[in-house]
Structures are given as structure tokens and as C-alpha cells.
Amino acid sequence: MLSDPYSRPVSNLRISLTPRCNLRCMYCHAEGEDSPSHEMSTDQIAEVIRVAGKFDIRSVKFTGGEPLLRKDIAEIIESIPDGMESSMTTNGTLLVDLARDLKEAGLSRVNISLDSLNPEIYTQITGCDRLDDVLEGITAALDAGLTPVKLNMVMLKGINEGELDDFFRFIRGNRDLVLQVIELMDFRDCAHHADLNGLEKDLAERSTQILTRRMHHRKKYCVEGAEVEVVRPLHNTEFCAFCNRLRVTSDGKLKPCLLRSDNHIDIAGKRGEELEALFVEAARRRSPFFR
Description:
Layout: E1 2-3, E2 9-10, E3 12-16, H1 42-54, E4 59-63, H2 73-78, E5 85-90, H3 99-105, E6 109-113, H4 119-126, H5 131-144, E7 149-154, H6 164-171, E8 177-182, H7 196-206, E9 209-212, E10 219-223, E11 226-231, H8 237-241, E12 245-248, E13 253-255, E14 265-266, H9 272-284
Parallel strand pairs: 3-4, 3-12, 4-5, 5-6, 6-7, 7-8, 8-11
Antiparallel strand pairs: 1-2, 9-10, 10-11, 12-13, 13-14
């Protein structure tokens, strides 16, 4: 297994498949990518996954942009070796027609971006009137067994911060639905940072059980039959201390840290032992952004 100079193991790979998206979310951080010029081929992605498996990386997550815009998405998923869990973060707008095919190709589960259950607010945030498509996609994912389905809600002050109870009602009683409340990141000029300290205090007071996840040491709250996680990457030493991810940009660069763009490693076209050596170098360059 790979580990970095801070003794943090690398057990999770996050691959951006495309910078393209069919929404225009006001806060989008685009996985920290800097204007990619091309997309990796199906074969290149398969080779990256194969090498990751050699280093005992046991979990891969596909992101975008919107990964379902890739016409070869099923073929990409089929390239995942036995014993490696696969998941995807999607905006859900295209999921209703693809969920079952994704499951049959080998995808384990999905995260679905859903920042509001109010059609007007959803359109304000995403720039598109696609809420009904997303809700149908959630149902399709549940029916296909792409579970647990995690709903990613970026908390935006003055916009959707009053919707938490609506989300609780939406997921309550369904153990296959989990809400992830995510801190707004500073990749765009989006001045809607909400107070997650107050949110976590409120969740703790209302919870019947509080668990600590291994991933980033983040808390999971059980509130009135709803399961809620809070993801706080900013100014969070625990988030960085327990980070186990290595990222791959859509144009083929290893990215040791989401919050940095000055230490990428170009792996486009690389294979075999050369690619393995670059994975080792990427792990060597990993350093906690917040200490």
C-alpha cells in the first residue's frame, strides 16, 4: 500500500472523467482542475485503475464534471478489477435511464448532488430546471441497488440553509438514503458560506447516536430516523490528517491534494512500471493542506 511522508495510507482513488457538465452550479469547484485540454481515453483510465489495484487501492470514485456524459461510462466501470469498490458522484439528471446499466457494469453506489428540494431554489443554484429529473434518478438508483445513495447538499447561506428539515423528511426511514451536508469551498466567487459550527452543534443535540467515520474523521449523526454526515474540508486539520485519497484529473494528471494545483504529475499516456513510479511520486508529494 502507498503511504505519504505523514504516514497517511492511500486507499482511495478519485478519478474525474470529464470537465463537461450539463448544469451550471454557482459554487462548482470542478475537482480543482485547471482548464483541462482533453479527456483521458477509456484505455488510459483502465490502466490507471489497474496500477491503483497493484498498490492495494480498494476504492475508486468517478467524478466530473458530470461523468454520465461519457458515452463509454459502462466500459470504464467494467474495467474495475474484482475486489475494488466503485462509486460515482453525479448530478443525477441522466441517471434514470442509466442506473440499471451502471449496476450491471459493476458500479456499487452513487452520490447524487441535490442542493435543494425546492424547484425555484434548485434552478437558482444550478442554472437549470432539472429537479424532477434528479428525483427520478434517485428513485432509479434505489431500484437498481446503487446503495447507499448519498445526497450531497452544499450548504449555502441565505439560499438553502433553511431546508434541512425538508431533507430529513425526504430520507427519514429509508436506510438506503444518506444526507451529506458539505461546506462551501473557495474555488469560485460564491459568497454564501454557512455556519457549519452551529449546524453540527444542533445536529449533536438532536442525535440519538453520533459515529465517527474513518474517511476524514468526519461525524455521522442519526437524527430522527435520518442519517446525516457533515463534510468540512476548510481549515479542518482532522479532514487533512485522515485523508486517504489520491485524485486523477480528467486530462491525466495525478493530483495529491484537492486544494493545491502546483504539484500535479502528468501521467497521460504512461503505462506499466513508469506509471507505477509516478504513483509513488504522487504519494511522496502528499502533504496536509491544513495542519
